Structure formats: structure tokens, C-alpha cells
Known about the structure:
313 residues, mainly alpha
Amino acid sequence: MAATLERLAPQAGAVRAAVTELVRNREFKYPLSVLPLIVHAVETGVPEPAVPLAVVHELWWTSACHLDDLADGQSAHLAGGLGRAEALLAAVVSGSPLPLLVVQSQAVPESVRGALSAEIVTCMIAATEGQLSDLRGDAATATCDSVVMAYRGKSGAPFSMVTAMAAEWAGVEKGRVELWRDFGNVFGILWQMFNDQEDIVSGRNEDLRNGTVTYLLACALEAPSSRSAERVLRLHADARDSHDARAELVDALLAPVVLGRYEDDINKFRGEAHRILDELGGEEPYLSVMRNLVDDSSRMLLRAGLAPEVTVG
């Protein structure tokens, strides 16, 4: 990361300082930037060459998470001493220009620079499409399938980007690149569902405050009782501004019939991820690491009767 920022032209001192501050203040709980290293190691036995792709992943998510905070109106999450406009500009630079700078560096073989650059551009478009779908999500018309489509963009696209990039760097044939892309897509869905669960378990309830249409909400809306769906829609609308509505909505989302459907679908996505890994094969020690990462990301954190500490406000 330091080497990437040092590559900025001398005239870009303010950009370097702003991005450095943005990265320094965005600490990720889970180090998923190791993903391209594992993919490269599965194919070649060595992870180290793909370190630049870990930097791409870190920069991309730093940008995406900050832009998501801004879209949700969470000004408290601004980066350190940066003002809102400064942080916004730093996030824009982190999302595409800096990742493109990384893959055009001498550390990346010239033979794959064009393909890797194209992956970054394609990902940005697909992820923006998914994020727009998320922002425009209408709970009244939401289905599990429509939520998955949004997840494939906003989370599946960046994960499939780095897994495909790592495979391309490893020099594998096109078919294996596409399998890794499929794996990243499914992994991104699993990770989004894991993140959704943590939001409830932690008591942050940012999705409820923002009116986000999550997969869990879609499961509740598709539950057999139409009366139940009407109640969930009412609570979802009120939850933005009402602590009591948020608490009641959490209870509805944790109903056994809802969690049963949710867990079944998580298991289906996990099964698909494992199926792809089995088809890929490769260096077994690193393949085992990837399997464990899938299992860790598809844990069922929610349970009926869970009483998370619902934040007041």
C-alpha cells in the first residue's frame, strides 16, 4: 500500500495524504484482502506474487465502504481529520484510479495488465449497479431473488473481480478463470449475508435504520402468512425512526419460520461454493484454507429468541 501511494506524482501530495488518512481510519474486522493470495496459491503453490491484488482489494473496499457510509448519511464514519468533501474525493481515487495504478505497475506482468485493468472497470460498473438497486430497493416488491441480484452486484462483483484477477495472474486457462469468477460471486453473496447477520447481532441495526432490503427481510416477506408480510412492511417503514419498531421488527425477522428459510438458503450458497472448489481442485493446503473461509463466512449467527442489544436513537 505504501509503495502504491509513493508512486503518485510529486504534484499529488494532497491526494496521497488524503488517501493515506482514509485507509488508516478504515480498519476492517476481517482481512478478506488475503483472498487473491489464496487463489493464486491454489493455482501455483505460492501466494506472494498476488500481494498487489490484495492492495487492490483493500483500496476498493475502503472506497466502497466509505461511499456506502456517505449514502447512508453516517457522517460519524468520516475518515479522521478529513472533511466530508476531502474524504469523498479520497474515496473516489481509491475506488478506481489507484487500483488501476497498481495493476499497471512493474510488479504486475505486462501480459496480464490489460486483463486486470478491464476487471477493475467491469467491477466498478457492476458494483454500482448493485448498489443503486440496493438504494432503490422497494420492500413492497422485494423477493429473495431480487435481493440476490443486488447482492451479486454490490458484493459479488468485487469478490469475483479479485478471484478472477488472481487466476488470470496465475496464467490458468479461461475456463478456470471463469470458475474462480463464479466462486467469488457466490462468496460475495455469503459474505453479504454474514454481514447482514452481524448488523443485527451487534445491535447496530444500520440496515433497519436505513430501510435496507436485506435477504432476511425478503425471507420474512415471503413467509406463508400475508398478514405477517403486511406487519413486516409496516414495521420496516417505521423502523427508520422508531426504536420500538426496530425492536419489534427484529423479533419478526427472528421468527423460526423465517430463520429456517434463511439458514436453508445460506446452506445452498455454501454448497455451491464448495462444489466450485471441488471442481477446481488445486494445491490442497491452500484449497483447505479456502474451504475454511467459506465455512466461516456462512455461519448462522441468528437464532430464534436472540435478544441483541438494540441501540436506542
